Amino acid sequence: xxxxxxxxxxxxxxxxxxxxxxxxxxxxxxxxxxxxxxxxxxxxxxxxxxxxxxxxxxxxxxxxxxxxxxxxxxxxxxxxxxxxxxxxxxxxxxxxxxxxxxxxxxxxxxxxxxxxxxxxxxxxxxxxxxxxxxxxxxxxxxxxxxxxxxxxxxxxxxxxxxxxxxxxxxxxxxxxxxxxxxxxxxxxxxxxxxxxxxxxxxxxxxxxxxxxxxxxxxxxxxxxxxxxxxxxxxxxxxxxxxxxxxxxxxxxxxxxxxxxxxxxxxxxxxxxxxxxxxxxxxxxxxxxxxxxxxxxxxxxxxxxxxxxxxxxxxxxxxxxxxxxxxxxxxxxxxxxxxxxxxxxxxxxxxxxxxxxxxxxxxxxxxxxxxxxxxxxxxxxxxxxxxxxxxxxxxxxxxxxxxxxxxxxxxxxxxxxxxxxxxxxxxxxxxxxxxxxxxxxxxx
Length: 443
Known about the structure:
Blueprint: H1 12-18, H2 23-38, H3 45-51, H4 58-70, H5 72-83, E1 92-103, E2 113-116, E3 127-142, E4 146-157, H6 177-192, E5 198-203, H7 210-219, E6 222-226, E7 233-234, E8 255-256, H8 258-263, E9 269-275, E10 278-291, E11 296-305, E12 308-314, H9 321-330, H10 332-343, H11 355-375, H12 381-384, H13 402-422, H14 428-442
Parallel strand pairs: 1-5, 5-6
Antiparallel strand pairs: 1-3, 2-3, 3-4, 6-12, 7-8, 7-10, 9-10, 10-11, 11-12
């Protein structure tokens, strides 16, 4: 039974983000954020509408979701500048880049296509039909929970072969994932540069290519990523002789073989590094080389692992080995974020067809994830996992998961709503509507 009681948004963040839209759509967006967080079961847009108490306005909620997709950059700017700024401490801002697919099938779903499936599983297919999202996340260090990835903004990648099926009014120009990645970093750098902090980007190895590395080097952004074993590295050119005409050399004349460097028994060092939340000892080599896709010199780090050597690099030659290895490990938190986006927030389940609507719904899931992490930042860990007492088979000492944080915030939002109705007066009609609403959410 739909409730006639429409709750007011109880979190100022909802109103801050909704301010990027016009007043009427912004009001609905603030309530939709509440619905995204309170909805249970399958996370379809209709479920969000019911959880937000907007059933009487359901026809207008779908254009609101599309408006979010068209204004995603403006909303993400408010999220970064007005909500996340206090969490960024230290001399640098670290961003993470990667892409992830969401399964979606239907003849009327615009822009969906066949994409590589990075997590096929034991019996899964190597391909998935649906959407692919290039996501930019902010990496912040929690004093107790370690590094956390907070998704900021995403771009939907549509294969050139699938663009023709998109309605002309909503058809974006074709762009590769690499081009989208550069655009995302340019957007973030435009605001982060005002903070007076160095900007670092840690990316998946697929983005360690010239179309990404060269533009970001010109921006002054340091990129850290995995290096191919067969990378065509060159030596560092000698210092320029004073008075000699012509521009100085950028690349050396000698080839540098990573395989030969790794096979040579000399030059190895050991050190302690904090990776994946643990202090471990690593055996490594490091040196400076030049690489044409990077547009100049890079810091190379070879790590001797039990399964063989692996190579990483940073475009800042003054970076330490710890800077590079720890940032590479921190990138895994974005992979964990993708898992939570799909399993907890329900990204990809919204059952909308148009390109702007799909973009808007994905961002609502991503921003709900980010806001949940920010809300839980200073919460007591024991309070976040209090429900585990009903599950004696669970480990009470396990750190709070994203699902735990989301559940705790749901309880607080509902408690505030109940207090607003019951605590101030005894209107039986409103109490009855609230009871129906709570029963609907629990069902």
